[in-house]
Amino acid sequence: MLALMYRALAGAVVVCTLVACGGDGRPGGTDAGTAIDSGTGTDASIPTDTGAATDARTGMDAGTRTDAGNGTDAGVGADSGGRCAPGTCIVPGGEECEEPSGPLGNGCCECADDGTCSSICRCAAPDTPVETPAGARAIAELREGDAVYSLHRGRRVAVPIVATRIAEVRDHAAVRVTLESGAVIVMSPLHPTAAGTRFADLRPGDHLGTARVVSVELAPYPHATTHDILPAGGTGTYYVAGALVGSTLSE
Question: Whole-prediction pTM value?
């Protein structure tokens, strides 16, 4: 009889590991400090640690302030439907809803009702003179298929436009760049240069392609729209008054 009891206890020692046994050594038992829902099949008599501040319905730490309707952090300004609150949106490169702060801020000039940025402050003035095989033409006049000069494999070549953009702006400011030739280029501060920097970063002595910059100033923008084009060829660049500039559509 004693031999049978010893063999039974020995078998219990084999199957009762640290995972399967509680802190008191009982098979299937759970440490009283473990916060486990009684609906999981665990002994309902085991108390839940009251210091965990865990929501019994979602398992979410109560300190995260999660919106019960969509799981969105309540700090991002989203409403119960999962969209941004009125007057806010997801701006280019952003992840949370925020107010548009213009060309010197997050690059968004206006938010749409669906929570997206409807007006990106990163383009050119409508009268910007883009160089084409037919001579300089205002960027606002150009359409897809029109030929413009671009830099392709280190050479200045004529290529077709593959995309255009027109954006409405309000209370906009722009960078006025004066070149050594006397030509003036007006671009949004966040518009890219051909070198991958921004117009807001330009300083006297810098170059746009081979054109040398002699002055840079921020000024009120007098137009209601901004414009941009995307030439074919891979670089997304085009020539304006002898200067090589980038395109927002190639980013």
Answer: 0.60
Per-residue pLDDT of the chain (251 residues; tens, 9 = 90+): 434 333 443 443 333 222 333 344 444 444 434 433 444 444 444 444 444 444 434 444 444 333 333 333 433 455 545 689 988 998 877 889 998 877 667 778 778 888 888 777 778 999 999 999 999 999 999 999 999 999 988 899 999 999 998 887 777 889 999 999 999 999 988 899 999 899 999 999 999 999 999 999 999 888 888 899 999 988 999 999 999 999 988 75
Query: Amino acid letter at 139?
Result: I
Nearest-angstrom CA–CA distance, 242 and 131: 8
CATH of 129-250, picked from 1.10.10.410, 2.170.16.10, 3.30.420.40, 3.20.20.70, is 2.170.16.10
Query: For the chain, what are the domain ranges?
Result: 2-52, 129-250
Alpha carbon distance 90, 62 (integer Å): 26
